[in-house]
Amino acid sequence: MSRPPGWRAGLRAGAVLLAVVVIGVALVPPGAAVAAPASAAPASVDPAPVEPAPGGPPDGVGPAPAPPRPPGAGIPAPGADYAWPLLPPPAVTAVFRKPAFRYGRGHRGADLAGSPGQAVLVAREGVVVFAGRIAGRGVVSVDHPDGLRSTYEPVTAGVVAGARLAGGDPVGTLEPGHTGCPVAACLHWGVRRERLDHLDPLVLLRPPRVRLLPWEGAPEPTEDAPAEVSPPAPAPTRPAGG
C-alpha cells in the first residue's frame, strides 16, 4: 500500500509532542492542583427559591411554635359567627373594595392594625387547608363550616394543613412588611366563597340583618280596591235636663 509523502515526518512530530506532554506531567509536584481552563469553570448561579407545595411547607420544615390563646379569643358579637382575628379589636387601616369584575382592581379583604409578633387568631372554627409561604409572604387559609374560606397574611404559621381549629385558636404570629401598612404591622384578612367570590370580612363580625317579608296570605292593596277605613265613632250626646 502506498503512503503519502511526508508521513514519516508527521509521525516523528507526533512522537516529539507526546514526549513533551509526558515530561511536563512528570515535573508537576505530587499533590499540586492543576487549574482547569477558564472556559471550563462553571458560572456562579444563585439557587432558585423553593416554594412550598400546596397544603404546607416542604417536608422536614415544621411550623413555628403557636402563640398562646389570649383571653377573650373567639367570642363573636351576639348573633354573629365570626370574631376578630386580632385582640383587642384593632383599627381598620384599609377597608374591603370589591372589584368591578372578576380580575379587576380592588381590595379583596380588610387590613387590620397590629404589632409584629402579635397572635393571629382564626375568626371561626374550621380546618387549615394551607399554611406556608406564597411569593415570600406567610399565608394561612382555613375552611369554615358555612362554606367560606378565610385567609390571614403575612403570618408566621404555627399550624399545619389538616389541623382542626376552634374559633379563636392562634394560627401564627403577625409579620411586618404588608404593603401600604401605615403602622408597624398589618394583618390582611380575606374571606371568599368558592374561588373568586370575595366578601367583606367585617360584615361577618355583625349579626345577620333580619328582613321582614309580607305574610303569604295577606291581601295586596290595589288602586281599584282601596283599603277600607272605619267611620269615626259618634260623639257622646248630652243627657236632657242635665
Per the CATH scheme, the topology name of one domain is Glucose Permease (Domain IIA)
**String of helices and strands:** HEEEEEEEEEEE
Q: Count of helices?
A: 1
Shape, principal axes of CA atoms: elongated
| Ends distance | 167 Å
Class per helix and strand makeup: mainly beta
Q: Beta fraction of the residues?
A: 15-25%
CATH superfamily of one domain: Glucose Permease (Domain IIA)
Radius of gyration: 38 Å
| CATH domain class name of one domain | Mainly Beta
Give a quick account of the main beta sheet: strands, pairing sense, barrel closure. Answer: 8 strands, antiparallel
Second CATH tier, the architecture of one domain: Distorted Sandwich
Give the total of beta strands.
Answer: 11
Helical percentage: under 10%
Poorly predicted residue ranges? 16-53
The mean pLDDT is: 76
